[in-house]
Amino acid sequence: MAKIITITNGTGSADVINGSYTVAADVTGYDNTSINPSSIVVSESTNTYAFTVSATGTLTLHVSEDGTSSGTPIVGATFIRTDASGTEYGNAITTDASGNAVFNNVPFAASDAPIIYYKQTASDGNHEFDNTVQNITMTESTQTVEITNALGAIRTFNLTDANYENLPIDSGSLTLS
Amino acid sequence: MKNVTIRLLGVGNSIFQPEVVIYDGSGCIVYSGCAYNGMVQVMLCCNRCYRVIARCCLTQTAAVIYIGKNDIYGINMNTFCQNDENLVTFTLSDANYSNLPIEKGEVILWQR
């Protein structure tokens, strides 16, 4: 007879008799055969058991100046997966010379697919970016999202002599870092 | 609902007070805590069944009580629970994104 443990936000509890068990998973969007470990021994001394499951989808983030597939690509923009509240998980990914960054092993399903959260953490230093948490559900195994990183606005910087009001500094440079 | 006393017989005022967990008919936890002087007091609904698991040292007892007219119910802690059940917590996370919790799903155990 099967014992079913409902998982909500990563956790579930149940009364389980001590003994050896084969483990299966039923998680929409994931490869249920990847459940690890696939067998456990429940014993008196241990009351918490951790499992993982893997997904097989690929999410490509294409970053360009105008947010189109043909726009000027942005190289070096970084992204990371998060949960809904913005807590970060896993390693950051970075856009390549084509402006593409790839999240591998993400979930997808024709219906009721899990929500994938992510956020951009940096651009290339010359473009603006949105650092808020974004989300997507994938209905196919591969999907590309177009992201806009607009060129920074033209700014004017004035440099004058501190002791002679408004006397312009003839030449020099300012470094912003 | 009414205030009900559950007495864990054989415990008394031992320094080793049992941990008690009470489940309703849906399997939801309605009480979780330690007994005091071998007793717990909890608000339970009348005409309902509750499952009580009391764990103390190496002894564990599970019993089902029906809340009727009585206000006091006794559970014998001197017998070992034949089912030997544990309240077990399972965590499920994404294998490729460390500690990313799986929002919803099921883990199914098949006893060998």
Structure, described:
The complex is a heterodimer of chains A (177) and B (112). With 177 residues, chain A is mostly beta strands. Helix content of chain A is 0%, strand content 47%. Chain A has strands at 2-8, 11-17, 19-26, 31-36, 39-42, 48-54, 57-64, 78-82, 88-94, 100-106, 116-122, 134-136, 142-148. Chain A has a 4-stranded antiparallel beta sheet with strand order 9-8-11-12, with no helix packed on it. In chain A, strands 10-7-13 form a 3-stranded mixed beta sheet, with no helix packed on it. Chain A starts with a strand and ends in a 29-residue tail after the last strand. Chain B is an all-beta fold and 112 residues long. Chain B contains no helices and 9 strands. In chain B, the strands form 2 sheets. In chain B, strands 3-2-5-6 form a 4-stranded antiparallel beta sheet, with no helix packed on it. Chain B has a 3-stranded mixed beta sheet with strand order 4-1-7, with no helix packed on it. The N and C termini of chain B lie far apart (41 Å). Classes of the chains: A mainly beta (177), B mainly beta (112). Chain A binds chain B through residues 1-28, 30, 34-36, 39-40, 42, 44, 47-55, 81, 83, 89-90, 104-105, 114-115, and chain B through 27, 53, 58, 62, 83-112. Strand 6 (48-54) of chain A pairs parallel with strand 8 of chain B.
